[in-house]
Amino acid sequence: MTISVHLDQLLLDHKMTLTELADRVGITVANLSILKTGKARAVRFSTLEAVCRELDCQPGDLLRFSP
Amino acid sequence: MSTKLPRILKGLTTFGIGLLAVGVIAIIVLAVFFADGDGTDTRELIALPIQFTIDADGYSLSGESWGTGEITRASGMATFNDPGPGLAIAAAATVIAAAAAALFALVLLRRIFDTMTVGTPFLPENATRIRWLGFIAIGVAVVEQIIEIGLGLLVLDNVSSSGLDIDYHFDLNLGAVFVGLIILALAEVFRHGTSLQADSDLTV
Which 105-164 residues of chain B touch chain A by CB within 8 A? Predict the structure, then answer.
């Protein structure tokens, strides 16, 4: 996949666990794990908004395009 | 999804599989232990659908609004009580093949209902199973027709009848073929459904 997800790096920067983020954004750990491992086929705007809000980042910090 | 109906249907298919297995075993047991083979056994061992012409003068039809009519063609079953070993083996193979097809269809149905009882039925395996059900419906109708034509021709060539002019004509079970085609179409719809389900599952 040419779109890579950098959720683990953002969590590390904010010293936050996946479970904690899941609680804050109201998404199951299983779904966040799908996002973190790059298995997701699609990301809802609402999910992106919630993750960016809690991690104080831009969508571009979470997702990167690698040609 | 309510799991009550799939559970009931799964139970029914399990019962059907058991019934079929018992039936096949019973037929084999009856054939092995009760066929005496000396020509005195009066049970019908082979039954073939046949068509024949009959004497129009012998039978008449009449009705108030219909006027009078006559029967010129009729169909029935020809039963042979003491077939040769070749025919008996062919008949046994046909019964076993039909039972195998029915068993395969029931097992496929049971697995489909099984997935419904534990979660979503929208799995790629189920799409394949439904497709197989369509192939079975069409295949059974076609194979049945081929066997009937083959055996019918065999009867025409080797059996002499008194008083009847037996012939055979093409009589494919178009209903079964049509149902099979509908099932195949549904299988493709189902396959698309599984793809959408996968998209939904991997959307966060």
Answer: none
Q: Are B88 and B45 in contact (CB under 8 A)?
A: yes
CB B50 within 8 A of CB B79: no
Q: How far is A26 from chain B (nearest CA, A)?
A: 11
B 58-97 residues with CB below 8 A of A? none
**Other C-beta atoms within 10 Å of A8: how many?**
11
The answer to whether the Cβ–Cβ distance between A42 and B198 falls below 8 Å is no
Which among B130, B134, B129, B127 has a CA at the least distance from the CA of B197? B127
- Find the angle CA(B112)-CA(B117)-CA(B122) to the nearest 5 degrees: 50
pLDDT in tens, B52-97: 777 767 777 888 888 888 887 888 887 777 777 777 777 778 888 8
ipTM of the complex as predicted: 0.82
Report chain A residues whose CB lies below 8 A from the CB of B203: 40-44
Segment B107-136, tens digit of pLDDT: 999 999 999 888 888 888 999 999 999 999
- A7 to chain B, any CB pair closer than 8 A? The answer is no
Q: How far apart are CA A55 and CA A65, in angstroms?
A: 20
Q: What b/e sequence results for B160-199 when a residue is b if at least 16 CB atoms lie within 10 Å of its CB, and e otherwise?
A: eeeeeebebeeeebeebbebbeebbebbeebbebbeeeee
The answer for B 164-203 residues in CB contact with A (under 8 A) is 198-199, 202-203
